Amino acid sequence: MRVAVIGAGIAGLGCARKLKEAGVDVTVFEKSRGLGGRLATRRVGPYTFDTGATTLTPRESELGRYMASLPIGTVELISRPVYAFEFGRIVPGDSSKNKDPRYGFRGGISRLAKSLADGLDVRLETRVEAISGQREIAGETYDHIVLSAPTPQALELLGTASDARRLPQVSYRPCLSVLLGYATPDPDVPFYAVIDPHQRNPIVWVSIESLKVSGRAPEGHCAVVVQMNRDFSRDHYTSPDDRIIEEAVSGMERLFGEPFGQPAVTDVKRWRYSQPEQVTTLDTANPPGTWLWLIGDGLAGGRAELAYSTGIEAAGRILS
Ligand SMILES: Cc1cc2nc3c(=O)[nH]c(=O)nc-3n(C[C@H](O)[C@H](O)[C@H](O)COP(=O)(O)OP(=O)(O)OC[C@H]3O[C@@H](n4cnc5c(N)ncnc54)[C@H](O)[C@@H]3O)c2cc1C
């Protein structure tokens, strides 16, 4: 059996890996230069930032079992909790959420994707533009084709295969992630991240990467990822980087006071499809007998372990 998987995010890689383990001939097509999709890590100067998914809370999931099989030292348990920005102050966050163990990756979260892709035939920088109704991609024929792009993009590809299946609305919010590297030590705080649960500020999430896991910044430096909220990200998606960085830096000062000052390095990562706001299900998206499969977080929820589970589930159905 030959299967093509479009997209080397966590859902596509999970699916491809499970198929390959069962002896299937699998090819993964990925449009970008790197593995992982929204499990993304960027190095800027001496700093390492997770620009998409920031931590994993796999609990008792398939992903949790896979992570437990990785060599010791790859995955780090994050010891600090998440606090909340409420009524103009930083206060302890949701205690029930803070009870769930959270994990990060020492060299960046994209390491998880690299590990999943080990031994797979992944063709990077290969965007699939169209799928023919004869199950063809770029002149090659497959028994099954799996689409793991964010659902709105996957639906465009379905159209090229003349597949007219109807899905309930699946929508995603955009997110601007701002990367800030400071040549000053980490702040003396009891948390690694702050969330604005009511989204009243342009900043919805701050992760102090150098307090999250080890090795993110040189000694005496501090690496921070600021995620802008949905409205700001939508309104400023095409604004120049300087404008976005200015808002993030001044927002940091509002949150923390003066000690952060001006960052030594900055960068912006734009996510048009960051996390789904409305999802459907794997069953709804994949009619019985299909050879053209939809997987990914639009069918489960905007969490890495949920996206992964859609890939594993689809692989199981293809195999059966
Ligand atoms: C800012 C941000 C913060 C987040 N925080 C968390 C968090 O803390 N914890 C958590 O669990 N989750 C978090 N998430 C969500 C999590 O990252 C996603 O749910 C998960 O990574 C989705 O995986 P996926 O495989 O479904 O999709 P993706 O990772 O988007 O993978 C799809 C892949 O398909 C490729 N592709 C698309 N079209 C084509 C084409 N035509 N041809 C070839 N390749 C194509 C893309 O390049 C991409 O690599 C966050 C996401 C963002 C953006």
State the end-to-end distance.
12 Å
Number of strands: 18
Number of self-contained structural domains: 2
Describe the biggest sheet? 7 strands, mixed
The CATH topology of the largest domain corresponds to: Polyamine Oxidase, Chain A, domain 2
Shape: globular
Q: For this structure, what is the CATH class of the largest domain?
A: Alpha Beta
Mean pLDDT: 95
Physical arrangement of strands within the biggest beta sheet: 7-6-14-15-16-13-17
Strand content: 25-35%
Q: Which hetero ligands occur in this complex?
A: flavin-adenine dinucleotide
Helix content: 25-40%
Low-confidence stretches: none
* Alpha-beta content class: alpha/beta
Proper CATH architecture of the largest domain: Alpha-Beta Complex
The topology string of helices and strands comes to EHEEEHEEEHEHEEEEHEEEHEHHEHEH
- What is the helix tally? 10
Gyration radius over CA: 20 Å
Characterization of the model:
With 320 residues, the chain is an alpha/beta fold. The protein has two domains: 1-31 and 126-170 and 280-320, FAD/NAD(P)-binding domain (3-Layer(bba) Sandwich); 41-58 and 75-108 and 171-278, Polyamine Oxidase, Chain A, domain 2. Helices cover 28% and strands 28% of the residues. It contains ten helices and 18 strands. Helix 1 runs parallel beside helix 4 and helix 1 (10-21) packs parallel to helix 10 (304-319). The structure holds flavin-adenine dinucleotide (FAD).
